[in-house]
Amino acid sequence: MPEMIKKAKLNPSLLNLQIYASKAISLEVKKNPDIVGLSFGEPEFGPPPYALKDIEDKDLSIGNFLNAVKRYEDPKGSLELRQAIAAWYKQRYNLDVNPEKEIMVTHGGVEAITLAILSTSEVGDIIAVTDPSYMLYSRTITTLERKCHTIHRPVGGYEYKKILEDKAILQSDFAKAKTIIINSPENPSGYVVDPTEWEMIADYSKKMGLWVIHDEVYDTMAFERKHIPFRASCSLPPYSIMINSFSKKFGIPGLRIGWIVANEEVINLASKIHDYMYLGVNIQYEKIATRLLSDQRNMEWLAGITQKIKQRAEKAMHVLGEQQGFSWPRLPLGAMFLFPNVRALYDKMPEAYRSKGVVVGDAVAQYLMKEKKVAVVPGSVYGSESSEHVRLVLCTTDKEFDLALDRLQA
Fold this sequence. Notes:
alpha/beta, seven-stranded mixed beta sheet, three-stranded antiparallel beta sheet
């Protein structure tokens, strides 16, 4: 009689997760050099040229290499880098943060988000995000077996104010949420939270015992409304966590160095989880991160990058108007993305691209890829209410950006 073999199964909830859309589109772009990629946030700028010589001669020396690879880093990261992060907040935002107790270094902003969710919630708890919001949030929440509650964010100058004044929202499952994730400046829309909104969010946080995770990885890229970290913009809320990283602002996503700012209790718990799941971050890369953050020349360089992104946003909105099928219900206030509504473009596309069951943004993204040879991300990946939008990045080379605009307006 043959021996019975029981089949081992993979996690079904993870098997059903959608792929990382912008990365999948980026891979398609790399296969076809004729396609211009406005889909993936890999900045062409950075690292700052003034730092390259010291990085090469000092941080990448054999001595630093051996020192880095022969030991594990402290769970909170190097004290030198944490001190540089504290100095960053003091210089830019006049915010005092204790580098020994209130900061920890992570494997980029992605790990920081994961640790923040794990530290503030349990399996089955509700985590709130808005629509639109960065696609990673809902996927991470699902991966960690939490429940994602999505709140439609109405278009306007004070979008979170409208949420907190809406009785229907306040009486929904949002009232049961343990944590809310707010990205400001935001991927994909470029929205920047106003200080008066942060005050309202802080008041609601205190009233409900709600953790607020402020993902501020685009902090240096606010251009139409000043960026203020949640913790610096209001009376210190008891439930605040701030997430940041080097990837976008310094154009070095492969460095994989980020950080968390929170109270001592959160940092102690997050560093414990980090130790169990990841161990220490790359010590040699911490040295590079410390150099970049501590160099006083970064203020001028970062301001120049922000100005360039602003000019590109203005140029794109001027070129891509109603005649081309683009409208701009949300004007970007910061970050390095555009999020136009493309319903008008959809309505005049060839019938072959308007398939039944395919939402507007998805259909337009396919059309632009096939016919215009321009890759964008469909808005549906950022929330169902964003299904008539597409996302375009503003961080490509000048040549690629100008070529994409030429193709989109043709």
